[in-house]
Protein 1
Amino acid sequence: MGVIYDYFSAATDDEAAAVYDWPAGPICPPSGTEPKDSVEVKNIDPHVMMGTLEALLTGNRYEDITERPRHAATLRFGDDGGDGLFTITGEFTSALVSADDDRIHAVAHAWSETEEFWGHADPAELAELLRDLRDLAVRATQQRHQLYCWMSL
């Protein structure tokens, strides 16, 4: 088991925040509501691990990335710490959109070697995840949406 993170798109912060009350996040809406376009991952948090990924994609310093106001900013968080909803920056979304397959392959390999993965990450699996995230970012950009992260323990 582990922490589940669903990265998804929404038009506004308010629309994204509504997902917090859905039974199982963006893929399980209330009756009569469409699920959100999303990518589900385990154990890859929006703050540290995605900050490291953005640094690798852009060449920007991790410290500069994590100081941005919308970098993993909390929209909603449960009193018990079990569920949360966070923003993803436009800069990160743009970096994903502009990453071609060669760049994804190179970044996935470098990302797999970071300390956050404890040497247990498969670069091929990370490349597949990055392609899925890139495709989500492309669709979000085309719809003028932003990316968000829903977390559940």
Protein 2
Amino acid sequence: MSKISTAESVTLFRAAGALQPERELRNPDLYASRILPWWPPLRASIKIPGLRHVVSRAIRRKWAAGLWYEVVRTKYMDGVLSASTAGGATQVVLLGAGFDTRAHRMRQEIGTASVFEVDQPHMSARKQQRACALPDSRVRYLAADLEEDDLAEVLHKGGYDPSAKTVVLWSGVTPYLRQEGVDTTLRWFAQQAPGSSLVFDYCWREILDGRAEIPQAQAVLRDVASRGEPWRWGIQRGRANELLAAHRLELVEDLEGAEAQRRYLTRADGSVQGPIWFFGGFVHAQVSDR
């Protein structure tokens, strides 16, 4: 791909995933193509009825692992959001929201819960411009840098209630942060209402420090670095529980990529779609209610 932001790239993958012929494998984000900008034109072709399936097939051929990873990530985080609001969460926080469309496409699951989208100022402004292409929603857009700003203060000013049960989605963000940025956010989350949930994805620390040489991972690292958005942070494989315990958080699940593939990309006949980025996983954490 030419040099575009990672937020646009993952949205393009979601859009392509929503066009896959196998219903059970499709990405559920049917609004992804609508929120993509019209530039550059080649990628914007996925917005055009006569061309969208051609673009989708091209992405499936050339960037299959990224496309299927995004399908899995979307489905997993959608599931945590749905279960959390069904379980009484009255606030939804999207950290590093990018071009996320959940506030628009999951209105039934979200119900009356308040939705807060937090992102860097320039990205938040772009999202608000693009969101006019989507159905109305009650999103509160908040500008913040997770490594520089006080997240609690930013949310408080936006009307967030730390005493209310909340679900926080942190999609495609942690690898780009420094250690302190991740720790600061986890410390903030640990102070939220008991029973609140946090879900995020991560890469293995081993691919960042060179202990694991995985060609597919190295290609992704080179790609994001070429965009000026290098990966900086990861969790050592199998050590997510230790990270959360240090912040007094409970691990609900640490789902590795390979197992997520089996869970979300298995056809009715038992065959599993792939390939997928497998050098990381998904963490679902909760604030203890004990």
Protein 3
Amino acid sequence: MKLFTLLFGLFALLATSVLAWDNEDHEIFDLVSELEASEGRGTTFYSWLDVPPTASTADIAKAYRKKSMVLHPDKNPGVKGIQERFARLGVISGILRNKEKRERYDFFFKNGVPTWRGTGYYYSRYRPGLGFVLTFLVSVTSLLQYVVQRMNYKRDLARIEHITGKAKAAAWGPKMIPLTGQRKVRVNLGEAHDGDGNVLDSKWIDMVVNGEEVYFLEPNGDQILIDASTATPPAITRTWFISLNKSLAYKVIGKKTTDDEKAGGAAAPEEDDSPQVDLTSDDSASVTGSGSEKARGGPVATSKVGGKRRKAPKKR
């Protein structure tokens, strides 16, 4: 929720910066519209004065005097609109001879002057095309997916640390002094309570602590190592767009894709009968493997990370 709030605020800030034109901007917009309506579409302040955009202030003043002699109302008696054109010439000349106003006009001259369409000004030259929109959406959604991957990775690491910490506490005691040898423990990963505080259900799971290593113990006796490598790290290559292109490329060249690749995950080995460790949001966990039952734990997992099946050394 915080992420989407941040993005919404960013887009709102960008929209505000585009729409918050000041009075000088609106003066320029109106002059551009009036100039094109009077002198022809595409006419700019520079082209009307017949000077290049790099003209100096002295050149602009000289061009203004020359143009004003042509447009002076005394020399054009009875010409319709001559008063407005002459007054407009003075305002435009004043803008181009003012450093700050000229810089502002040059910005719109180079980047496109906004056009009025009833709901506000928008850039007529920079309306995004289909390609730009698709590229933007792909980039944003891929970035968001990568951010979610990072969040899930950190969450899974925290859960792994929490679960292994409970197992070590059960094996070593409250002082957490490491003991040698292999110890089998039962760990309570959470309790469900009713409204009166009564315990409805406890989630217990068998685990083995052997030195610093912690294992999930399956009913068939197999042990699954639980450590930081159990969590799946984030990767740009596992975002949806890259995964989709990989899948399409594999179809073209005739290579089969794994279920993980189709779902936007990393490529899995062709034959992998290793169990999976399910870490749930309420700190419960379950273990599933090829041909094995689910170990005692909570409900169906919401986050899966690959576990390592490893036999713990036999207790001497």
Protein 4
Amino acid sequence: MKCDNYMNMQSIATTHASQVADLHIQGISTGFISSLGPRFVTALYEAIAQSPASFGIVAVEDDTVLGFVTFTTDVKALYKILLRKHGLKFAVLLAGKMLSPSRLKKIFETLFYPAKAETRDLPSAELLSVVVSPQARGKGLARKLIEEGLSQCRQRQIEKVKVLVADHNKPANKLYQTCGFEYATSVDSHGTKSNIYVADLTEN
């Protein structure tokens, strides 16, 4: 997979996890996952890279990750795998943070989000996150990553993919619509209004 003349796209691996975590925390600084700290976010992306229920793509230049996108084929299955295989590790990393009632509430909201999605007849596959480093922005990289990810979804015979995005994040809302996602519904996510978009991959 090629991206411009200097950048390669690769499948995400555990060796990318630390850089991907740094990009996530920088690019989604106000997000709940970012608030859990670099060690937890790194462990999360290591687990995503290893899970059969998820995959991702990184844009790399000279061993530096300049952007990434991650997907899950089934967000509910991904949570189950992460808890079963990495639950103890996550519990240790979160031990100090779990004492906060607000964080506990958000953790449970995150875990039970898939069940809420099922009641709204939304697809199980989901685009989890996409971030591009500041030096690589303005070149259409986020769109290229998303389009490559959707192409891989088609190869996996996934027919529809959803994405959750904060309503106030206008650039991200516009980006997903440009990539073929259509508005489906809105939900409360950690006290913030968020929109859910769905891409129908069976359409040309």
